[in-house]
């Protein structure tokens, strides 16, 4: 089952209580859904981790942890899920967010390539102004596209975990029924 795999991979509640920094906040980590591995809690943890992962900088894990505490979903899964964004994936994800925001707002945004300084024809002030215009042109599509992409990723993660969990349960039940039929035929024969 997925539970066996997740129990081996994720840290336990006791390990987190042994951490000297987290020990003083231990009373917040009491709710059982923060640690239970069921389809609701894990799917919610993936959704919360997807939201936290799109926050730039080092606030990803903190955001996912706070959201997991607030929504009472699996905390280790939420924290682990934030690692889908990293220095290699954050650029393409933000590019998709700009394109998605541009498609929704009808504003194509600025050019894909920022203006480069040309020391022969432009002054530094002209280049700085062109750079500001370029960044502002990305603002509206990014402002709309980033929350939209985050919501889509969270919804997709939630639905994917629920679907995978359901398919795994059905597969296990069929395998168990097949094994039961084989044992029943062996005893009858």
UniProtKB/TrEMBL annotation:
InterPro entries: DUF2062. Pfam families: DUF2062. The keyword Transmembrane applies. It comes from the Bacteria. Keywords: Membrane, Transmembrane, Transmembrane helix. The chain crosses the membrane at residues 150-171. Residues 23-169 form the DUF2062 domain. PANTHER family: SLL0298 PROTEIN. This is DUF2062 domain-containing protein. It comes from Chitiniphilus purpureus.
């Amino acid at each position: 089952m997925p539970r066996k795999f997740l129990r081996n991979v994720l840290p336990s509640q006791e390990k987190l209580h042994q951490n000297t920094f987290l020990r003083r906040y231990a009373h917040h980590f009491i709710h059982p859904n923060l640690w239970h591995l069921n389809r609701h809690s894990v799917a919610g943890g993936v959704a919360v981790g997807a939201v936290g992962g799109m926050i730039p900088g080092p606030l990803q894990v903190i955001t996912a942890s706070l959201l997991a505490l607030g929504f009472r979903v699996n905390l280790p899964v939420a924290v682990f899920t934030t690692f889908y964004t990293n220095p290699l994936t954050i650029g393409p994800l933000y590019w998709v967010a700009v394109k998605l925001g541009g498609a929704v707002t009808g504003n194509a945004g600025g050019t894909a390539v920022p203006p480069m300084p040309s020391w022969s024809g432009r002054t530094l002030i002209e280049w700085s102004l062109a750079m500001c215009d370029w960044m502002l042109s990305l603002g509206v599509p990014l402002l709309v596209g980033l929350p939209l992409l985050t919501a889509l990723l969270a919804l997709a993660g939630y639905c994917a975990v629920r679907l995978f969990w359901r398919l795994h349960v059905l597969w296990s039940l069929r395998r168990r029924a097949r094994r039961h039929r084989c044992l029943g035929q062996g005893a009858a024969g």
